[in-house]
Amino acid sequence: MAIYRITQIKSKIGSTKSQRATLETLGIRKMHHSVEREMTPIVAGMIKAVSHLVKVEEMK
Question: pLDDT tens across 2-48, in order?
Fold first, then answer.
């Protein structure tokens, strides 16, 4: 599977509790923090839930 870098680009202030929990589950702690995750159906669903807060890039 492909590896993706997920970076928080917008503040989580004003987001719902479930969106904040999703960011925590992905391992993102603060603004401009990046994590690298393998793209699985579970991770894809989490990214979709917070797509307005994060930027996703494929690693090569």
Answer: 999 999 999 999 999 999 999 999 999 999 999 999 999 999 999 99
Number of domains in the chain: 1
Residue tagged 């669903």 (tokens): 45
Residue numbers of the domain that contains 46? 3-58
SS3 per residue for 35-49 = EEEECCHHHHHHHHH
Give the count of beta carbons closer than 10 Å to the beta carbon of residue 50: 23
What is d(CA 3, CA 15) in angstroms, rounded to the nearest whole number?
Answer: 26
CATH number at residue 46: 3.30.1390.20
Residue 38 amino acid letter: E
